[in-house]
Design a protein that fits this description.
Elements: E1 2-5, E2 11-13, E3 23-30, E4 39-46, E5 51-57, E6 63-67, E7 70-74, E8 83-90, E9 95-99, E10 102-107, E11 117-120, E12 122-123, E13 129-130, E14 134-142, H1 148-162, E15 172-174, E16 194-195
C-alpha cells in the first residue's frame, strides 16, 4: 500500500536517528503538479536549532532541496508527476539529487542536519506547505554515503518491490485525519520508517 497526501494532510514522527551529514535518502514517490503554492513532500525540522533537510516544489514550479538556512532550486520543465525512485544526498557542497537513478542536479544544499521532527506530506510551521496529491510508497534513510554496491542494492530492492512488472504495483490508501496537525503514527501503513 501507499499513502496519498492532499492539501492539509501530513504524517510526522519525532525521531528518526538521522543526525549528521552526509545523509542519503531514498524514497518511492509519485509527484504532484504545481498548484501555485510551495509544496513540501518531506522535511526534517528542528525549529529550536534552525536545522532542516527538505524537498520542495516552489510556487514558481522549481524543484529544490535545502538543509539549514540554504536552499537550492533548479528550474525544470519536467513535472515528476509520475511514480519514481528518488535519491537525495545531503552533503554540503557535494549534495545531489537523482530520479530513477539519473542524477538531476549537484549543488550546495546547505549544512543542516536531519534532527527534529520528520514530516511527510507537508509542513505547517511555514504556512500551508502541504503536498497536493503526492504519494509515498517507501522512505529509507542512511547516516552516510553508500558504496556503489550498497547503492545498487537499495535501488534493486526498491525496483523489485515496487516496479517488478515495469509498473508500480500498489494500492493507494487515502487517510482521513480528524486533525492533520496532531501527530499521527504510521502503524496502520504497511511500510515502516527505515533507518540504517
Amino acid at each position: 500500500d501507499v499513502i496519498r497526501f492532499d492539501d492539509g494532510e501530513m504524517l510526522w514522527t519525532s525521531s528518526t536517528g538521522l543526525t549528521t551529514q552526509p545523509t542519503t535518502l531514498y524514497f518511492v514517490m509519485k509527484g504532484m503538479s504545481n498548484d501555485g503554492n510551495t509544496q513540501r513532500p518531506f522535511i526534517f525540522y528542528d525549529s529550536g536549532n534552525n536545522q532542516n533537510q527538505q524537498m520542495f516544489l516552489s510556487s514558481g514550479g522549481n524543484w529544490g532541496f535545502g538543509a539549514g538556512g540554504t536552499s537550492y532550486q533548479w528550474g525544470t520543465s519536467a513535472t515528476y508527476e509520475g511514480w519514481g525512485v528518488w535519491k537525495v544526498i545531503f552533503d554540503g557542497s557535494s549534495s545531489e539529487v537523482a530520479h530513477n537513478d539519473v542524477v538531476l542536479n549537484v549543488g550546495d544544499y546547505g549544512s543542516g542536519i536531519a534532527t527534529g521532527n520528520f514530516h511527510l506530506g507537508g509542513h505547517a510551521s511555514w504556512g500551508s506547505n502541504y503536498c497536493n496529491g503526492c504519494e509515498f510508497a517507501e522512505f529509507i534513510g542512511f547516516n552516510s554515503h553508500l558504496t556503489e554496491t550498497e547503492d545498487d542494492n537499495v535501488y534493486e530492492y526498491l525496483y523489485e518491490k515496487w516496479f517488478d512488472d515495469g509498473g508500480l504495483s500498489v494500492t493507494t490508501t487515502t487517510k482521513e485525519l480528524s486533525n492533520p496537525l496532531i501527530e499521527d503514527t504510521h502503524a496502520d501503513v504497511s511500510d515502516e520508517w527505515h533507518h540504517y
